[in-house]
Amino acid sequence: MNLGATSAILDTESFGWPLGIDRSLGVPVGAQLRGQLEYGIACGDIPRGARLPSVRELSQELGVAHMTVAGVYKELLGLGLIVTARGRGTFVADVPQPPPGPDPARLTRLLADTLAQAEGEGYSLRQIGEAMNALIARGARPTHTGVNVLLVGLFADATRGYAADVQAILPAGDRVQAVTLDDLRSRHALESAQNADVVLSLAHRLNETRALLPGREVIPVGFIPSQRTRAALAALDPMIRLAIVATFEEFLPTFLSGVRRFAPHVSAVQATHLHANNLQGVLDACDVAIYATGSETVRTLMPHKPALEYRHIVDPRDIEGLVLPAVEAQRAPHHTKEPL
């Protein structure tokens, strides 16, 4: 392990995510800690609902200032990634429960009111029954109108990839459209947002998405490294000199850890980020570069060397547990969209 790095696997009842501070990277300690927690939550490595260490526990284990940890927790709280419960501690924010099914008691009340109104206007029970049967028969006919899903991401190309992940699971006729936060900020995607039945957002961008779509229910989804990314890293020649380029400096330690997780056999590794002064030097000295989504410019900076993107996919557990139930709930007849 690097002599400038400190790490810990915190021995609390529900938290086993390894956190580490690598002081040799030149990334502020608070940014490193925030990036690791944010990425761990977004990828599901830190489970939703899990209890996080207290500020005191985390500062002691990692050897960082109490105020630094408190500041990181405050930022994550503002992003909606964690919640606090007085007297109980700090927890990873849970996801909204799938929409409940229709209430049979409410249906009975609605039909009773309709029946009473029809009788009050002079219709016989036979006439009411015939009309009701006709309506039921009409409603039972298959509909060809699909559900419109909007997926909000950060980078256009990656967001289109996430949308394709979801589209592949949905029935024919449903449609998933990809837009970015910048699209929403510029109002270019306003019509798409208005026509969406279901809105999805990357988990760590949930609050930003909600702020841009007030009044809409937004479902957060996590992401995990793609199988193609894992296979490409595992196939790297152990003798190469590898450069790792993160898009945001706070995610550099986590990105470095992820690459080492799938390519532990490569020992000559240099890590930097897209806006670092040493970026070109690191790329000049490497044989192969692994870059994070959003750092595609790496390819233009080293046109004659291999450069691989570290891609993610939407977590299949979230598609199964959150997206599909929400889509099916929208398929119910006479569903009313929430206004913007």
Q: What are the salient characteristics of this protein?
A:
single chain, 340 residues, alpha/beta, Arc Repressor Mutant, subunit A, Rossmann fold, 4 domains, four-stranded parallel β-sheet, 14 helices, Tscrpt_reg_HTH_GntR, GntR family transcriptional regulator
What does this 3D model show about the protein?
The protein has helices at 29-42, 55-62, 66-78, 104-120, 125-139, 156-167, 181-185, 190-195, 206-212, 227-234, 252-262, 279-284, 298-301, 316-330, and strands at 5-8, 19-22, 51-52, 82-85, 89-92, 148-153, 175-180, 198-202, 218-221, 223-225, 241-246, 268-273, 288-292, 307-310, 312-314. It is α/β, with parallel strands linked by helices and 340 residues long. The strands form five sheets. Strands 7-6-8-9 form a four-stranded parallel β-sheet, sandwiched between helices. It is elongated, with a radius of gyration of 25 Å. The termini are far apart.
Looking at the structure, the CATH topology of the largest domain is Rossmann fold
Number of strands: 15
Order of strands across the main sheet:
7-6-8-9
Helix- and strand-based class? alpha/beta
Radius of gyration: 25 Å
Classified by CATH, the class of the largest domain is Alpha Beta
Percent of residues in helices comes to 40-55%
Quick one: overall form?
Answer: elongated
Strand portion:
15-25%
Order of helices and strands: EEHEHHEEHHEHEHHEHEEHEHEHEHEEH
Q: Note the gap between the termini.
A: 51 Å
If classified by CATH, what would the architecture of the largest domain be?
3-Layer(aba) Sandwich
* Sheet with most strands: 4 strands, parallel
Number of H- or I-type helical stretches: 14
Keywords: DNA-binding, Transcription, Transcription regulation
Organism: Deinococcus humi
Protein name: GntR family transcriptional regulator
GO molecular function, one term: DNA-binding transcription factor activity
